[in-house]
Amino acid sequence: MHRIPLPLPDDGLRAVNVYVVDGDDGPVLIDSGWAIAAAREQLEMGLRQLGYQLGDARRFLVTHAHRDHYEQAIFLRREFGTAISLGSGEQPALDVLQAGKRHPFEPQLQLLSMMGADSLVDELTAAVAFVQPDPENWQSPDTWLAADDVAVAGRRALSVVPTPGHTAGHVVFHDAADALLFTGDHVLPTITPSVGFEPVLSPTALSDFLGSLARVRQLPDALMLPAHGPVSPSVHARVDELLEHHDIRLAEVLAFVRGGAHTGLEVAKAIRWTRRELSLSDLNAFNQLLALAETAVHLDLLQAQGRVTFATDGEVRLYQAS
Fold first, then answer.
1. Strand 2-7 vs strand 143-145: parallel, antiparallel, or unpaired?
2. Cα–Cα distance measured from residue 229 to residue 30, given in angstroms and rounded to the nearest whole number
3. For the chain, how are helix, strand and coil distributed in percent, rounded to 5?
């Protein structure tokens, strides 16, 4: 088993890990990278060092349908016929992307309007005005994966564990025999994954994510093989940290609402972001969008728990503590 980090364009994460699992009739790759020239070159070089060519890959097991995990698999399937497998919960998002009728970030921009962040809506709308997504880059996989499916790669049996939250159809792959867990973006070693940032928004995204963390925590502890960042010795240890983070964030969001922050934007401005304790205005436009989206899913969960309520003023939601 081998890890090949592939570069990402203009992205704070810098690289996405593609894992190569040796098989009897060719390697199986977990995730594929973004379809850019530098990523293809790096993947080709890495496989060559292992004695493979790009066309030798038998199958892509993709954790979720974000571009940096899924797109290159589509391009390589066109060229070499490599099979692609993806969690069945990603089908609604792919249906939207394949239709090609919506502007990039359309549901996120609508969310920002509900949070009172119209100036950010204007900035992001201008920034993506020239972007024309290609529906062909979001073709469906060959196989939809479901709970308890097992993917065989050489001597390894990789059990499919659905972990909705980061996306609705995110899955992780569990090698119980060797105590390995390929965690995709569900559990990352140094950052908290974004939740529900996809073409079809879910009001239960954070609840789903926390439930998925609990599900993974119930598995025997394993070596964590994440999609971004270094391999880490304990999935359980990192899951505990993520659960604690969200407990703290829920408490502070509720406290800010009780203290008079009535819109999502006002709550997000009160929060300090990243390990550097930055204010919302210190972030660039895209990261402000991620911060506001995280604020929104915490407000959604507090509302579902009956701890906050909201009324609407035009498009804007106004929150108050119950």
1. unpaired
2. 15
3. 40, 20, 40
Q: What are the residue ranges spanned by the domains of the chain?
A: 2-102+139-237, 106-130+242-321
Categorize the per-residue pLDDT at 133 as very low, low, confident or very high, splitting at 50, 70 and 90. Answer: confident
Specify the pTM.
0.95
pLDDT one-digit tens code per residue, 12-33 = 788 999 999 998 889 999 999 9
Sequence letter at residue 227: A
What is the C-alpha to C-alpha distance for residues 39 and 8, in angstroms, rounded to an integer? Answer: 7
CB 271 within 8 A of CB 106: no
In angstroms, the CA 115 to CA 266 distance is 8
Are residues 256 and 271 in contact, defined by beta-carbon separation less than 8 angstroms? yes
Report the distance separating Cα 162 and Cα 183, nearest Å: 11
- Chain-centre distance of CA 226, in angstroms? 12
- 281-300 pLDDT, tens per residue? 999 999 999 999 999 999 99
176's tokens: 């119980």
The architecture (CATH level 2) of 106-130+242-321 comes to: Orthogonal Bundle (1.10)
Determine contact, residues 225/19, Cβ cutoff 8 Å.
yes
Tens-digit pLDDT profile for residues 149-177: 999 988 999 999 999 999 999 999 999 99
**What residues are paired with 152 via a beta bridge?**
157
**CA 85, CA 62: separation in Å to the nearest integer?**
6
Tell me which CATH code domain 2-102+139-237 carries: 3.60.15.10
